[in-house]
Design a protein that fits this description.
The protein has helices at residues 2-16, 19-50, 52-61, 66-80, 89-123, 170-180, 183-189, 218-224, 230-247, 252-264, 272-287, 291-331, and strands spanning 197-205, 208-215. With 332 residues, the protein is mostly helical. It has one domain (2-149, 229-318). Strands 1-2 form a two-stranded antiparallel ribbon. α1 crosses α5 (89-123) and α5 packs antiparallel against α12. The longest helix has 41 residues, at 291-331. The protein is elongated.
């Protein structure tokens, strides 16, 4: 599946001519394909929210008879045409896609880096880099502490051979390792490094142990840093907002019922720790991955937020029409 995603992204890039925008377009296509499942999930979640008072009544009535409670709960689900597992389906599909994209972005990044360094070795010049908006090289992290080119002397531990790749061969990797340790590469890399800076070996920056070139002036920071750490921040913020939207609007009665259920049932997914875990994890994974994967993560969140807002608006209108129709029928 990773090879399929890599080939598809490569094909889109051949049309678009920029990997950053190709990833955005690819993400949009993925979200369009998943939209019917998202709508079904949202519909199920709203239906579950509406029957919470009935579920709460059953829990109180059959508190001492678990078997009867389960039976009556299933009867209620069938009567209301509600599936409690339908809301989990998009996540069960989205998570594998996320990890496949992580692998695909790593493979693309590794191949691009190997090709770029071999080209530099053969031509003695720096080729045009794959930039996107404020990011100078999408296959390096979006951070002011990340170098535009791989660090001088790097042993390319992040490169792993892929059997289906003609680029990531042991011969090419070994040639690039030697080139990264050469004076020729140091001379070329210095063109994209701060003229007045100091190198600090093995700095522990957001869980990345690497050789970082730290600019000692604001001007050099913006000029020579690969990114501005915007994507990790956007990923965390969008993840938090998406979580809020997925929970949807709740009445005071629904909030009280949810609070009571959380007090009586130890559900770790509803805990404040888990609500904050995913936004923080988003920042971390995007800070430690190449910007290509961060673009996918951020774009997927933003597109899903727009979809959620549109779906919420649609169902809110449907509920309002149903309530208005019910009020008119009661007046007749």
């Amino acid at each position: 599946m990773t090879a399929f995603f890599v080939n598809l992204l490569t094909w889109i890039n051949g049309v678009v001519g920029n990997y950053g925008w190709s990833i955005v377009l690819f993400t949009l296509l993925i979200r369009i394909v998943l939209l019917p499942l998202d709508i079904k999930s949202k519909k199920s979640m709203r239906a579950m929210s509406k029957i919470q008072p009935k579920l709460q009544a059953l829990q109180k009535k059959y508190a001492n008879d678990k078997e009867k409670l389960n039976q009556k709960t299933m009867e209620l689900y069938r009567k209301e045409h509600v599936s409690p597992t339908a809301g989990c389906l998009p996540m069960l599909i989205s998570l594998p896609i996320l990890w496949i994209m992580f692998s695909a972005m790593r493979t693309l990044g590794n191949e691009y880096t190997i090709k770029m360094l071999l080209d530099m070795k053969n031509t003695g010049s720096i080729p045009a880099l794959q930039s996107w908006l404020w990011i100078k090289n999408v296959f390096q992290p979006d951070s002011f502490a990340a170098t535009i080119l791989p660090a001088v002397g790097s042993d390319l531990r992040m490169i792993t051979a892929v059997k289906s790749s003609a680029v990531l061969t042991a011969e090419n990797i070994e040639a690039v390792k030697l080139y990264l340790q050469s004076a020729e590469y140091s001379k070329l890399a210095a063109q994209l490094a701060p003229a007045s800076a100091f190198n600090v070996q093995q700095i522990h920056f957001l869980f990345i142990n690497s050789t970082l070139t730290i600019p000692n002036s604001i001007a050099n920071l913006f000029k020579y840093g690969n990114g501005l750490f915007i994507l990790p921040i956007l990923a965390g913020a969008s993840q938090f907002l998406m979580t809020k939207l997925m929970n949807g609007k709740q009445t005071e009665e629904q909030k009280a019922l949810q609070a009571e259920q959380q007090a009586n049932q130890s559900n770790p997914m509803n805990s404040p720790v888990m609500k904050w875990f995913f936004p923080i994890f988003s920042v971390w994974i995007c800070a430690t991955s190449n910007a290509a994967f961060s673009i996918y993560w951020m774009a997927a969140n933003v597109i899903q937020i727009v979809q959620q807002m549109a779906v919420n608006w649609y169902f809110d209108r449907q509920d309002a029409k149903a309530a208005e129709q019910a009020a008119q029928n009661s007046d007749i």
